[in-house]
Amino acid sequence: MGRRKIIIRESVVENIAEVAWFIESKGLIKTADKFSDAVYDFIEKLSDERIIHALCIEPERKSFGLKCKSFRKYTIVFIESDTEITVTEFISSKMIQW
Predict the structure, then answer these.
(1) Which of 73, 80, 83, 97 is the most buried (most CB within 10 A)?
(2) pLDDT digits over 43-79, tens only?
(3) How far apart are CA 47 and CA 50, in angstroms?
């Protein structure tokens, strides 16, 4: 099974860290660690070159050719090519406007 290179923008890393920090601020340190690990594991699974992901449903992102995958209450937005996946956004699914 081949894997594509994964590039994660700094803003995505910061957004994941903010969510984990919020969880941690509620006293759930292990849960915050598990959340971060789960997000990065999910992103890693996107790199499987046998899978071509669907375009985002939201019209504006779709018009730019961006791909979207849901992760719990969040949406991971990325650009897919034959050789790499570039993760551009990690946002609350509620923030996506139609």
Answers:
(1) 80
(2) 999 999 999 999 999 999 999 999 999 999 999 999 9
(3) 9
